[in-house]
Amino acid sequence: MFERFTKDARAVVEGAVTHSGRVGARTxxxxxxxxxxxxxxxxxxxxxxxxxxxxxxxxxxxxxxxxARRRGGLSxxxxxxxxxxxxxxxxxxxxxxxxxxEGVLEPGGRGGDGRRGxxxxxxxxxxxxxxxxxxxATARRDRHIGDEHLLLAITLRGxxxxxxxxxxxxxxxxxxxxxxxxxxxxxxxxxxxxxxxxG
Length: 199
Prior knowledge:
Domain Clp R: 2-185
InterPro entries: Clp_N_dom_sf, Clp_R_N
CATH topology: Double Clp-N motif
Shape: globular
Number of domains: 1
Region (Disordered): 100-122
Number of strands: 0
Pfam family, one: Clp_N
Oligomer: single chain
Strand content: under 5%
Number of helices: 11
Protein name: Peptidase
CATH class: Mainly Alpha
């Protein structure tokens, strides 16, 4: 599958590994892919994010992602569901952090397992994003998988990264509109040639 990735999409995957290592996570997750997308400039994915994002977009996204990590990777929808059962997630997080230290609930775990110099494996969420990106590119009849397909896959997948993006107006529909001028798979503005030229 990676032979179909543009250089921009490969750079996002490599950047996700770097972000994962920077925070000491055991695996590369969807959040790391989003952060790597935010690092890119001059690509179709970065164009969509820049077009839809407001001033301070990156900082706000990073804050929201950090808050979700602090909740153990649970989305606000998960927190709301627990609240409906009478469980105050904020109170639980505070008590656990008082007893065991700040950030103890963050998913992916932190270092200490001797993986510092080795490649980190991709977690299931990140693998799902890669597979979904391939499906999106195939459905659009694009020959290559670009960073825009990774962004679209993150917005479609659901979960914390999609929730954080949606809070900032970045949804599958809005990204599709920016990139292709419509919502259908046959929208012509960014078809095969646009993706092939991106990488």
